[in-house]
Amino acid sequence: MLAGCVLANRSPGKEMKPLCMSWLAPNEAKQKIWTKFRVEALQPGARGVPDGPLSGSDLQVCLPKGSTCCSRKMEEKYQATARLNMEQLLQSASMELKFLVIQNAAVFQEAFEIVVRHARNYTNTMFRNHYQNMGPRALKFVGELFTDISLYILGSDINVNDMINEFFDSLFPLVYSHLINPGFPDPSMEMTECLRVARRDLRIFGNYPKTMMTQVSKSLQATRVFLQALNLGIEVINTTDHLKFSKDCGRALLKMWYCSHCQGLLLAKPCAGYCSVVMQGCLASVVEIDNYWREYIRSLDGLTKGMHGVYDMEHVLLNLFSMIRDSIMYVQKSGGKLSATVSRLCGRSQQRKYRSAAYPEDLFIDKKVLKLARIEHEETLSSRRRELIMKLKSHGSFYSSLPEYICSHRSAVQNDTLCWNGQEITERYSHPVVRNGAKAQAGNHEMKMKGPEPVISQIIDKLKHINQLLKGMSVPRQKTPDKTTDEDESESGDCDDEDDCSGASGNGDVRVKNQLRFLAELSYDLDMDDVPSNKQLLNQQSKDGSAVRSLGSGSTLVGRVPVAAAVVVVFLILAH
């Protein structure tokens, strides 16, 4: 009824007395203005509403044609409220997208750490089952290798080739003293150092270290850039969520949302065209992110499509144990010749015993150790990545659509008739709508545009950088010249996402799934001391046959997510 009275007494273009001094009694008018001000300005104890009309000579934005209902203090309160409203609307607009990215960043980080833990336990179990004499000492080197892998994924400045070299340097003295010369006393420190040097000079393990470097490096680089991209996505959204708007923008927001109150038009709504012009001006620098955001999603899509074979850390890490086993068998095959060469190089001469080149059966993985789970509709990290990209694509136009979103959520009058134009109620808003982007704001008659916001320029630079990294990881791989097809295939280790991939060669080998199935009982005989929580959760889940429902899809989570909470999140989400 109030709106009807206001509009009935307000003819466009005609100066009227404001509500606080016209058809209501003074006390009743003041009460309505005060109530509206208290609600809108979020000040329960707000004071400063005048008893009657004011000249408004001290107002800076809501300049009256005649008298006004607003004091200077009210205008200041309204401007602060307008800025707060704008920030809340931005955060509301980004809520779904922000949750999507934050959730997936946490899920993938914890899932990658789970893969590393299982890969480590696969390797530890292989040593314990088949190289019992040197197994306990090998566990130290295995632990160091996979610790370095975890740190690298999280962004540590570690060289992948160095970590692989260090592992094989440490492994060879054990292999030499326990397998090449069984029964031989542990080598001295000098002998150990000589064996470490000899390992590289004589290429003791053949091409296995080089192949392992290639596969681990490519897969970890892709994984690391993927996580960096997700964390940057969170940073981009946080930056725009908490953007500090210019003084001109604050004045324009006040004029659009609250200056009508000073004329007693408490329920007046801004014209949609007017709102669009104001938002285009306020968000001009934010909208500049749009092209880089779209490119970010395209580049992330390109990376995820290429994360298979040697670019898939699941496939590579979960098969490392078999590559390490094969490298040890390679050394044993040339044991006699190798022992003599190493003895001459390191200056040791003693009675040597060799392992036979024919491998005893216990060198092969017992089929009881690996029980392949056959489960329909199993979900992998690969499918989870595809789902994330699909959802991100639906937010590709997020930044370009922000002005429209905010206007639609502040109840602007869509047909631009009988609406507030910043000065009065107008029959029709006729000013042309300004296009998106900072360059188009030269013709914005509602507010002046200054230079780009420094914080937006910085976030655009970061997006450019991560887009270059993503594109670099997405470049199609070229076969090395002078390599035969067989050699290239043997080194690349490519394997389709859903294929079974053999981790070793020779009769009796067991083919191992190249991806960890998060809904299946993890079938490898793991070291239960190392992975108590997630292993038991998965086993219990599989035995009970219970289905876990998803929470749905995705503060910057650069650090580690607490394991107990994150593991629960991982399995709830990956069970979708």
TrEMBL record:
Domain of life: Eukaryota
Function noted in UniProt: Cell surface proteoglycan.
GO annotation, cellular component aspect: cell surface; extracellular region; plasma membrane; side of membrane
Region (Disordered): 471-508
Membrane-topology annotation of the record: Lipid-anchor; GPI-anchor
Pfam (any one): Glypican
PANTHER family, alphabetized: GLYPICAN, GLYPICAN-3
Keywords: Cell membrane, Disulfide bond, Glycoprotein, GPI-anchor, Heparan sulfate, Lipoprotein, Membrane, Proteoglycan, Signal
UniProt GO BP: cell migration; positive regulation of canonical Wnt signaling pathway; regulation of protein localization to membrane
Name by which UniProt lists this protein: Glypican-3
Acidic residues bias spans: 485-501
Protein family membership: Belongs to the glypican family.
InterPro entries for the chain: Glypican (IPR001863), Glypican_CS (IPR019803)
Coiled-coil regions listed in the entry: none
Places the protein is found: Cell membrane
